[in-house]
Amino acid sequence: MLELENITRAFGDRTVLDEVSFSVPAGTLTGFVGANGAGKTTTMRIIMGLLAAHGGSVRLNGRTLPVSTRPEFGYMPEERGLYPKQPVLRQLMYLGQLHGLSRADCRARALELLDRFGLAERATAKLESLSLGNQQRVQVVAALLHRPKVLVLDEPFSGLDPLAVDAMSSILRDYAAQGVPVLFSSHQLDLLDALVDHLVIIQEGRILADAPAEQLRAEQAHRHRLHLGADAGWLREEPGVEVIDLSGPEALVSFASPQEAQRVLGCAVRRGAVHEFAVYRPSLADIYREVIQ
Amino acid sequence: MNPRTGWRIVALREIETKVRDRAFVLTTLGTLALIIGSIVVAGMLSARTASYLVIATDETSFQVLAEARDTPPEGIDLSILRMAQSAAEQRLEQEQVTAFLGTDDQGRFTLTGKDTVPGELRKLIGDSLSTVLTEQLLQQQGVADAELPRASDLRVAQLDGDADRSSMVRAMALIFSFLFYMASLMFGMPIANSVIEEKQNRVVEILASAIPLRQLLAGKILGNVVLALLQLLLFLAIGLAAAYLSPIELPFLGVVSQVAGWFVVFFLGGFLLLAGVWAALGSLATRTEDLQQSSGPIIAVLMAVLFLGLYASGQLLVVASYIPIASSVAMPIRLLSGEVPWWEPALSLGIMALSCWVVLRFAERIYRRAVMHTEGTLSIKKALQIQL
Q: Could you give the ipTM of this predicted complex?
């Protein structure tokens, strides 16, 4: 498990991270979300040992990591590109060697991963000749080459088409399944829903949520969705009902108690058709919007 | 992994990338061809010997020609035949000989050619003629030849060393200055560009998470230094080998070889210092275009050093031979004149080593801070304020 405890960092007199604490459990895909400038990249750089924290500590399996290199981590920085003018395999071998692999091992491992990502026949092509999605896959290969103990990816999905997103998702999932903590940041909230096991939300350098996705969903599951046969406007007049969203026959409401819910359901049935009356399971995007308000 | 080998992997990659670069290979081969070509041409030009076959039609003429043959100036090869005038005329008519020399009944000498007599041959035979006739005259007067004053009694001295030597110094100054200038741009600028490339697409973050930035920088500089040095050694070795193998004897080859050794050491120091500057400049920039602006001063310095090497002399050259970068060219040039005591280059190298240390330390400070900074181009002052 990767843990951050009370990480603080300022640039000049601007505090960018304020007592940031969260954990990335082993074997989970942890999503790291926040607006631009919320502190995601700074946090990731501190995790990678590229930047010093002014306070707090980063721990891996209970052991505090010094500010130094982390060759045993896999990292994908935000604006990626590697070396555009160099052949794919050659730069992978270079990066692999810097991470401590032998030349032979590098080559075998790079070819194995490229093959898995369907890029085996592009191994000698220049990186810039690949599509953006394929370039990003090469990036992931670069991060996975040395069998990292921790994977930190800054915006791995940005700029990918839907097929590439699926491919990237399955790669990350496979990797997490091997028991490695995987932390990745993303702007695409809808994407997180199907993917992450654990969610960390950061805003203006403060952590607002750090919990398993299921737990967050359960905590936020106090709303109901209604789809009636006719206009649902009457719900506004009902006591014990807070209407969050209403449009024609559809409504998103919050009940004061389970009893109120049952009572309103009775009213609805008496008034006409009820097509849907369900506990609303919020998406992580909803949770995010809720949390940052 | 052993983190201490990181710089070696980086250096090897720098070398590998460069050696695979077609432009680099072509420039190197082109320069080599130029070096060999110019030495061969120089050799051919001075090795060109004119061969003349001249017939003497009587004994005195033969003596004159023999004198000319035995004291030929450089580049003239004279062969003599002795035969009767009629046979000589026939041979000349068939162009089997260059000319024939004979005397008429009044003792006047005539040098007869087919349609023209080469000027150098005319002069050579004319000189011999006057020598031979003078000797004959002196003998008749009873004066021994050895008692006569000779032109070689005049010893020539020049305030600025001897003429041959100073033209050799000028030629080598041109070569040293040009080699240094070329290497500084050819291997220095790519250091800056490769730093910018890695900064621009953030590969540097991946690299820095694997090995310390200091090693990354060291590997980058080292790779280029090794390449620049190997290329220089190749140029010098081929150049000197061609000069030694050339059929004509080039003067001062011994001194030149010796000073070439010094030049390699001074070159290394100057290049190392510049490499640090290039790396720092690269890390301050955000895009390759920025470098065009920020490299202005350093290119101006390099041009100044080039012109210094070509034209400087006297006090200016002495001062320059102690200023790092300029000294890479200026001190070897001074050493060529052969009048510099040993402690001068040693002191100059000491100054160079010290400046290298200071500049590289400073460059590393800037590099480590600036290379991760992605929001805009930095000034040195701003870069130093960045907290790691």
A: 0.84
